[in-house]
Specification:
With 144 residues, this protein is of the alpha+beta class. 42% of the residues lie in helices and 13% in strands. The protein has two domains: 1-83, Arc Repressor Mutant, subunit A (Orthogonal Bundle); 85-137, Dna Ligase, domain 1, CATH 3.30.1490. The strands form two sheets. Strands 4-3-5 form a three-stranded mixed beta sheet, with no helix packed on it. Strands 1-2 form a two-stranded antiparallel sheet. The chain is globular, with a radius of gyration of 18 Å. The structure holds zinc ion.
């Protein structure tokens, strides 16, 4: 994985300490945090950090293509530092969004009917550039 400073330089982003800390934390995080959650994770080690800076940084990262915004039904957005195409599952109990294991996500995507996709393109006179699927689930309580 390319280090954050090199990625920022390549994307012509200024390497401020706060930006680097926020992006590093977002990259390590598996739950696709909201801006507030990310703020609470980084704030203890960075007293001067404000929530406004977190929002501004996340906007900047999304514009630079280093992160993506994931809208949720309650209107808050979650953020993902993985901008490659991958499948998400939203856990209803906790609201968190998790990545579906890549191999399983690929297998599911392969099952999508090319015939139907082509029909959608023809019928709606559009070109489909990508597919974004979000699964919705809840924690399963399996017995021992
Ligand atoms: Zn993700």
């Amino acid at each position: 994985m390319m280090n954050t400073r090199d990625l920022f330089i390549r994307s012509s982003l200024r390497c401020t300490t706060q930006r680097v800390a926020l992006f590093d934390t977002l990259r390590k995080c598996k739950s696709h945090p909201t801006a507030e959650e990310l703020f609470r994770m980084v704030k203890p080690g960075m007293v001067s950090l404000s929530l406004a800076t977190v929002y501004n940084t996340l906007d900047t990262l999304c514009e630079a293509g280093l992160a993506q915004k994931l809208p949720t039904p309650n209107g808050t957005c979650r953020y993902d530092a993985n901008t490659s195409e991958h499948l998400h599952i939203r856990i209803k109990d906790t609201g968190e969004i998790r990545d579906v294991p890549e191999e399983l996500g690929c297998r599911l995507m392969e099952q999508l009917s090319k015939t139907v996709l082509n029909e959608i393109e023809r019928e709606m006179d559009i070109t489909i550039d990508g597919v974004s699927i979000q699964l919705i689930g809840r924690k399963a309580y399996t017995r021992l």
